[in-house]
Amino acid sequence: MKPYIFNIQKFSLHDGPGIRTTVFFKGCPLRCKWCHNPESQCFEPAGDLYTVRELIKILKKDQIFYDQSGGGVTLSGGEVMAQDMDYVEEILKALNREGISVVIDTSGYGKTEDFDRIFSHADLFLYDLKTIKEEVHKEYTGVSNERILKNLKYLSDQGATIELRMIMVKGVNMDQETIEETITWLKKENIKLNGITLLPYHEFGREKYKKLGRECTQNFEKSSEEELLHVKKQLETAGYPVKVHN
């Protein structure tokens, strides 16, 4: 079944290495209160439907830029792992055949068997970890993080290349205790990471909620540069390469 795609963003520089084209699938099982793309949450229209062949034809148009910059294609969302996995796997295999690098941008909330189907076809996983604390995760995303942590461990054990992405929301997940608990879990489970990227909370999506006729849940306080650097230092002291997304 062809899933809805609500955006194909060319010349993307923040969704993996090099120049990339990012495919945004529609539909996400999480309801993060800080979400800046609320239009991506629902699985139904608006969006466009593409056969795999049609989509690959579009993605191949910029292959020269991928090759010159070490870039490629990023599959994002919504949540790519909540889509029809036959379709997703077919795209990955087709891109592999074309010699195009593929990145999966995921919340980790999917079936482990689906990650098993696709991990060998992806060059990198941009893996979101909202918070290590399960009750806090439920409160602010609507779902437990148990499956997310399980899949992160699975991908690490399989030798997948993983960049952990942590959105920093003041009053939710950037306190010292939460960061220490995160480090303890990563060490205990021997999670192998290529690096960690801290994503500062922003309010870019506020107008979208109004257009959708929904109450805006982007009502958090922005963190200061000093607070972000404090978290960065904690993680670096634990041995992780860390960068802060501007």
Q: How is the biggest beta sheet arranged?
A: 8 strands, mixed
The topology string of helices and strands comes to: EEHHEHEHEHHEHEHHE
Number of strands: 8
**Outline type:** globular
| CA radius of gyration | 18 Å
Number of continuous helical runs: 9
Strand content: 15-25%
Structural class: alpha/beta
- Assign a percent range to the helix content: 25-40%
Report on this model:
With 246 residues, the protein is α/β, with parallel strands linked by helices. The chain contains 9 helices and 8 strands. The protein has helices spanning 52-60, 63-69, 85-97, 112-118, 134-141, 146-157, 176-188, 206-211, 225-237, and strands at 5-12, 20-25, 72-76, 101-106, 124-128, 162-168, 195-200, 242-244. The chain has an 8-stranded mixed sheet. The longest helix is centred in the middle third of the chain and has 13 residues, at 85-97. The N and C termini lie far apart (37 Å). The model has no long low-confidence stretch (mean pLDDT 95).
Write the layout of secondary structure elements.
Elements (H helix, E strand, L loop, with lengths): L4 E8 L7 E6 L26 H9 L2 H7 L2 E5 L8 H13 L3 E6 L5 H7 L5 E5 L5 H8 L4 H12 L4 E7 L7 H13 L6 E6 L5 H6 L13 H13 L4 E3 L2
